[in-house]
């Protein structure tokens, strides 16, 4: 999603704020949702980025001469990793969703990255202690024991996680109030405890809360189709009435504001 002020829509796109509900929804339903390219949202939605700059930091870790083998877990369409090279002598990435897997293979294989298809659940198809560095950006699930297993002694897990209560304003608009148990998911201190239980030492753990704005209902629909865990089982047909209500609210009051949280994680396997 764009970090800058909303840009003007292209000549073939409905103009947010003037296009009708049906046109905006139809456009969003027709858009591709594979990969983690968020350029579709330009002019339609914005999201603040964490201050630390994960991709830049990732590039520095991959360029460290002490890192001879690295693994990027749940790489999505490979966009983040592709922009963070050059890579160590051995570089692998995993992805389970077929559309993302195909996209990541096309993007990363020419750069020398071995893209491995496989389920997100353990076991990972790698030997014990195979990697000096394991990375991930926004993994759906973090399997700490498996990360610890494939890390070499002294190796590092470096990642950016989705934090607690991300986009809950949008989730609760469609689902109603979410309970305390759901709100505690992905809490950084819970992740610290899980990492330490797996035998890792937490070196850095930082969380930031970031503003998001949705400027039209098409952006909302596209987001919910792409980030499927926000409203599980979302379809336009099932939520058409609520979508229309939100469209009218945005038209009358301006952007729908939500907040994401992001956590920077660095954990190390003791040497």
Task: Note down, in words, how this protein is organized.
Helix content is 32%, strand content 23%. It has helices at residues 21-30, 54-62, 79-82, 98-108, 144-150, 168-175, 180-184, 188-197, 217-226, 240-253; strands at residues 45-47, 69-72, 90-95, 114-117, 131-137, 151-162, 201-214, 256-268. The chain has an eight-stranded mixed sheet with strand order 1-7-8-6-5-2-3-4, sandwiched between helices. Strand 2 (69-72), helix 3 (79-82) and strand 3 (90-95) form a beta-alpha-beta unit. The longest helix has 14 residues, at 240-253. The radius of gyration is 20 Å and the shape is globular. The two termini are 39 Å apart. Mean pLDDT is 92; it is low at 4-11. InterPro entries: 23S_rRNA_MeTrnsfrase_RlmA, Methyltransf_11, SAM-dependent_MTases_sf. One of its GO terms (biological process) is methylation. Keywords: Methyltransferase, Transferase.
How are the secondary structure elements laid out?
Layout: H1 21-30, E1 45-47, H2 54-62, E2 69-72, H3 79-82, E3 90-95, H4 98-108, E4 114-117, E5 131-137, H5 144-150, E6 151-162, H6 168-175, H7 180-184, H8 188-197, E7 201-214, H9 217-226, H10 240-253, E8 256-268
Parallel strand pairs: 2-3, 2-5, 3-4, 5-6
Antiparallel strand pairs: 1-7, 6-8, 7-8
Helix pairs in contact: 1-9
